[in-house]
Amino acid sequence: MSLYTKLVSQFLFPLHEHLKGHNTVAIRKEMEQSQWWDREKINHFQLTRLKKLITHVYQHVPYYRDVMDERQLKPTDIATLEDLQRLPFLTKPLIKQHTDELRSDTNPQLQRFNTGGSTGEPLIFYIGKERVTHDVAAKWRATRWWGVDIGDPEIVVWGSPVELGAQDRVRELRDKLLRTELIPAFEMSDDNLSKFVERIRQTRPKMLFGYPSSLSLIARHAKKQGIAMDDLGIKVAFVTSERLYDEQKDDIEKIFGCPTANGYGGRDAGFIAHQCPSGSMHITAEDIIVELIDSNGEVVPHGVPGEVVITHLATGEFPFIRYRTGDVAVLDDATCECGRGLPLLKEIQGRTTDFIVAQNGTVMHGLALIYILRDIPTIQKFQIVQAELDLLTVRLVVSDTYEVACNTTIIEGFKKRLGQEVQVVLDFVNDIPVEKSGKYRYVKSNVAIN
C-alpha cells in the first residue's frame, strides 16, 4: 500500500464518512472480524439483529404495524430465522403503493432513490444513514479482499445518472482525492473506446469497476487496436449490475491481465454478495438474510434455483423485509476454502443488459434508453427490441393516466441517441411475458456488435 493510499484509507475517507454522520470504519472493522465466524455464530448474529429490526418496525413503521396486526403477529413471535416466513413479501408495487407508510415515524434523514430495476418498473424508495453506512462498509470490506483499498487509483465505467449527474465541484474534489475517475458507459463508439483505452493507460489504475459488458467491450477494442493493457499493474476488475458471462470474464482477465471479482446487489436490495479471491460469492450475511423462493412463494432448498428475496437488517428507517428482487439464483451449502464463514451463492441467473447499436454504429449501453422510459412514472413495464439497425420497437404497459405527449418524449429521446432516421415504434400491450429464468429481459438487440 502506497503512502497516499494509506493517507486516504486511514484518514481522508474516514474523515469524509465521519462528517456525513456515518460510522463506516467501525462497521467495516467489525465485519472483518465477523467474516471468519462459523455459520452457527453468523446465524445467531442475524437472528439478534432480525428481532431488533422487527421490534423497531412494529413500533415505528405504520405499514409493518398494520401488516403484523392483520396477521395477529407480535415482535416476540419472530423467534427464529424461519419465523421470518410468517411475514408477507415486499414487492415493488407495494413499495409504490405504501411509500409514505414505509417511512419510520422517528423522522430519520432519508435519501430519495429512483431505480428502474431489471423488470423496467420505476421505483422510488428511501435509504437512511444506517443503511448507507452498512452498504459502504460491506463494499469496502470486499474491496480489501483483493489487496486494494480506497485511495488506490480506480477507473469506474458506469452509466447511472445519479453518478454522471453529480459531478459538481465537491464531487470532483472528492474523486480526485480518492483517485477515482468516472467514464460514461452509455456511448461506446470507436472514438470513445479509443479515448477510454488511452485514459486507462494514462491512469494506470490498480482497480477497474463497472459493467462487465462495458469493460469487456473496452478490452476487446484495445486488443483489436493492438494496444497492450496487461502491463499497467491492474490488480482486479470489479464487475456488477449484470450477469458476468464466461466470454466477458475471459476477455477482461486476459486483456487487462487481472482477475475479475463479481459483485451482486442493487440500490434497492443493497450489497448482497461479492466474490472472494478463492472464487466464491459470499453473502453479506451480517446485514442481509437471503431466501430463495419458487413460483408459489415457498422457500426452496440449497442447490435449487429460486427468486432472490432479501431482508436487509440495516433498514429500520425504510424497511426492506422479504423484498422480492426478481433475480434468480442458487444457494450453496459448501464452505469456501478461503475460510470465511459467510454463506455462499452458487450461481446468479437472469441478469442481462444488452447493448444497443445507433445508426452511425455507436454502441451504447442499454441503460441509455432505459433511463428515458424509467422517468415516466405512468409506464408500468417496458421492453426494448432492436430488430434492425434502423428499426426499434418499444413494448409498453402503461397506466390509465398515461399521456399521449409521452409518446413524443420517448421517440425524440430515442432518436436523439440512435439517429434521426431510426424508426421507433411504440407497441402498447397488456402484458410482457417473462423469460424462462423468471425475469423480464428489458433489452433485446438482434444487431451484431463488431
Automatic annotation (TrEMBL):
Keywords: Ligase. Residues 193-311 form the AMP-dependent synthetase/ligase domain. Pfam families: AMP-binding. Gene3D superfamilies: N-terminal domain of ligase-like (3.40.50.12780). It comes from the Bacteria. One of its GO terms (molecular function) is ligase activity. This is Phenylacetate--CoA ligase family protein.
